[in-house]
Structure formats: structure tokens, C-alpha cells
Amino acid sequence: MTTDYVTLDRTGDKMPMVGFGTWKVTDADAEDTIYNAIKAGYRLIDTAAVYDNETGVGRGIRKAISEGIIKREDIFVVTKLWNSYHNKKHVRPMLEKQLSMLGLDYVDLYHIHWPIPMKFIDPAKCYPPGWIDPETKRMDYEPSPMQDCYRALEELVDAGLIRNIGISNFNVQLILDVLTYAKYKPAVLQIELHPYLQQSRLVEWTQKQGIHVTAYSSFGPAAFDNFTSRSSTVGPLLEHDTIKAIANKHGKSTGQVLLRWSIERKVAVIPKSSNEGRMKSNLDLFSWSLDEEDRKSITDMNQNIRFNDLQDVMYGFELPLFD
Question: Which residues are listed for substrate binding in this entry (predicted)?
Fold first, then answer.
């Protein structure tokens, strides 16, 4: 039976295999949502600068700590460095701002959100800045080497401000480059992953390097209905006949089947829900398993369709990151 956590190589930290994602959770709703998620049993919370909810997320975490539901060491907190702050001189100030918003002394995992260095935007003028410079109305790149950014993150590890370094939306070439100079190997790669985009070779290769994988958007186009036209080209995974048949066979929900499929690949998941029942059912992934027929049926669903493709959302700017 699959365990409910993985052990990160360098630190020995236990990272839960099921966390609570916060993309699209508003800052106003975040405190109650995160507090309720922790009460339901979640011990990993995933946020990011660009989600614009770190203040509320931090309040929810601290409320749970103050009420004795958890201790700080019981919760694995993940956040991410935004593209506008890749320059090494901006990395520490940005993390310190995020820690201040969260109300925490350190985070357990700090991801480079995208391997795309963009022009610095003063957070005093605009935060979070997003993809487009509010003044120029363009997405402006900055010639900032990834090595410099990564070195700055390693300094934050040494300073005790982050426990582990993560990378997100990186391909094999970028990971290989990081591995040539990393003093502290990336602990986790976070990527879009679901039955329509299975990325088997990337997952297997990354795991062989001792880097754990976390899936985002495990429910596929459900998260992107208003974000990309590609979501209209396929049916919702939660309503797919194959997934529904497997769910009925095991007496589980379609969401549980999709999450269990990732867990069995040793890939962590970060679903979210505001519904208490679904919060709890999304955690119920370790007392049952898929069979070989189930896994084969889901494997056959792969279409290599990526919903979070920047080429679709760059407001006319070309960025074929995944081509």
C-alpha cells in the first residue's frame, strides 16, 4: 500500500502525498478555507505569490496553530517565487515579504514558479504583478540567469528561511542544467498532470534523479474552463465514462479515482474544495487501490493536452515554452 508521505532526500522532511491547493481561493476566503482544510486533516498547504492569497492562507494556518489543532512543525507550507523576482538581488526581499504575509518564520518548500525571468516590478507599486507589466501592458523579459536565481535560493536555505527548494513547470533540459550547479538538489518538481496529460517519461526520469513530483490540476480542464480554449475540446475528467466506471466499481468518487491514479505513480496531489465532505474524501486515498485494468484504462486516455499552456494566455505575446 502506498504511504501517505514521501521523505525528501536532503532534509529528511516528510512531505504529505495529499496537500491542499489554493489557486483561485481568494484572500478573503483563504483564512476559513485553510483553517477548515487543516481541521479536515490536511497537513500540506500550497500557495504562491501570484495567487494573491498568502495573507489569508497564513491567517488560517496560524489560527489552527493557536487553537492547538497543529504545531508549526506539523504543517508543510509551500509557496512560490514569481517571475518578476528572479534577479538574485530580489529573491530574498521577495521571500521575506511572502513570509511576512504568511506570518511565518520559514516555509518548507519554495518553488521557482516558472522558468521565465521577467522584468522587476516594484511590489510597492503592484503586487502581485502577474504576467503583464501594468505600465507597459507587455510581458517584458529580463536577462537573469537561472543559476543566479537558484544560488540565491540556496542562500535562503542556509539562512533557515526555506527548508527545501522546488521547481515548477521545468522540462528535462532545464532540470539537467540545474543539476550541474546545484549545491542543494531540487526536492520537488511541480507540473500539470492528469489523464489527458500524463507526462510519463518526464515523471519517471525526474523520480530517478531523486526529485519528487507533485501534480497540479489533477482534475484536468475543470480548473481551466475560463482560462483556455483547450478546455472546451475534451470532456470534463470528473464526468468521463472511464473514470465514472472505475469509481462505481470501487465505490469511490471520480475525484478520488483521479487522485489515486497519481498517488499510485508516486506523484503527490494538491486538490482543493470548499466542501467539507469533498475535503475529507479527497484525503481518503490510501485504504484502497486501482487494479491493473483500471490503470490500463486510464493510461489509454492520454491525449497530451496541456491546459496551462502560456501560448494560449499571453495576450498575443509568443512564448512557446512547451513546444
Answer: 113
Q: Which pLDDT band, with edges at 50, 70 and 90, does 311 fall under?
A: low
For the record, the C-alpha cell of 58 comes out as 497564513
The one catalytic residue in 51, 85, 110, 196 is 51
Q: Are 312 and 230 spatial neighbours (Cβ–Cβ below 8 Å)? A: yes
User: Rounded distance, CA 55 to CA 58, Å?
Assistant: 5
Reply yes or no on whether 110 is catalytic: no
pLDDT at 225: 59
Q: Strand pairing of 20-21 and 14-16?
A: unpaired
Residues in the annotated binding site for substrate:
113
Q: Which three cell numbers stand for residue 202?
A: 518526464
Question: What integer pLDDT is reported at residue 135 of this predicted model?
Answer: 84
Average of per-residue pLDDT across 271-290: 95
Residue pair 75/102 in contact by the 8 Å Cβ criterion: no
Binding-site positions read 113
Q: Omega into 128 within 30° of 0, i.e. cis?
A: yes
pLDDT at 244 over 50: yes
Reading phi first (left if > 0) and then psi (alpha if -120 to 50, else beta), residue 170 is in beta
Domains located in the chain, CATH noted: 5-315 (3.20.20.100)
Q: What is the pLDDT of residue 231?
A: 61
